[in-house]
Write a structure and sequence with these properties.
It is built from four helices and four strands. With 91 residues, it is an alpha+beta fold. It has a single domain, classed as Glutaredoxin. A four-stranded mixed β-sheet has the order 2-1-3-4, sandwiched between helices. The radius of gyration is 12 Å and the shape is globular.
């Protein structure tokens, strides 16, 4: 079982695709995608929660990871897999 993953994204976002591909390669079967291009309220929620305007914005559990570059950096540092393990959502 993996920690829940939520990703704010849009329909046309190559970094969102790369983030999803990386997460899937780590065994994440389900990603809650929040399409901010379809829901202006979700865009406002994302910006108020993260302080950022760009997508993707990724949460692993309640921990805000950031965007694709942040996710890839966690993976390179060997910290992504432990975060994805159930109950290991804090960095």
């Amino acid at each position: 079982m993996t920690t829940p993953v939520r990703m704010y994204s849009t329909a046309v976002c190559p970094f969102c695709v790369m983030a999803e591909r990386l997460l899937r390669s780590k065994g994440v079967a389900e990603i809650e995608k929040v399409r901010i291009d379809l829901d202006p309220a979700a865009r406002q929620d994302m910006m108020s929660r993260t302080g950022r305007r760009t997508v993707p914005q990724i949460y692993i559990g309640e921990h805000h990871v950031g965007g694709y570059d942040d996710l890839a950096a966690l993976d390179r540092a060997g910290k992504l897999t432990p975060m994805l393990s159930a109950g290991e959502a804090s960095a």
